[in-house]
Amino acid sequence: MKIKNIIPKERINKHIKEFIQSTKRSPSGHNQAFADPGAYLNAYDDIISKALGKGVKGVSGNYYEHVLPYYPHTDYNSNFDNVYNAAIPLILPETPVGLVVFDQRWENDSALWTMEHSKKFISEFVSSTVDLKEGKPNDYDITNKTNKEIDDALYNNYLHHYRKEDLYGLSGSFFSYEIGDILVFDNKNIHCTSYFEGKKLGLSIRFKIIEEDYG
Q: In the chain, N or C terminus with fewer CB closer than 10 Å?
């Protein structure tokens, strides 16, 4: 789900300033720099609740700056019961970029698949808290496997930085990142950044459901 043109430029600039000034940073490899979202953890509770028709509350999150696309992964954490993600782009790279959300789900706590690489290699580029799964998602007990190659258009337009065989069994949709928009999705669905070149800064907030009906 995309909520369009909901965040004014002034708020975007405040987020960027908070990231730059933040002293709450976690060392997380060569690819990324994390920072705590501070006062903004619950700034979007009402907007996301209205969009979903369910009452939700932000329970965890981080700013993230990276120069390489994120590998296929999930973000669910049973300790927080944080079932929805909101991805808010703040600074975009020179090339078009977005999020690919796959139809396949990983029902356990968060994981990241290393694709053609070893765990040791990928560990140099991600947080030490990430549960690395060596190989491709189709090798594991994910839901809704297609038992066929990924769609050519989805692969050629957005995922060509991977070997096609490592995306076997997956299907999904691409959502472009635009400043001012919020992307909301179920974080048990496998997802990854599309191919891009440059540097990207965003804010990710993870939400738990506090009431099934809202409004």
A: C
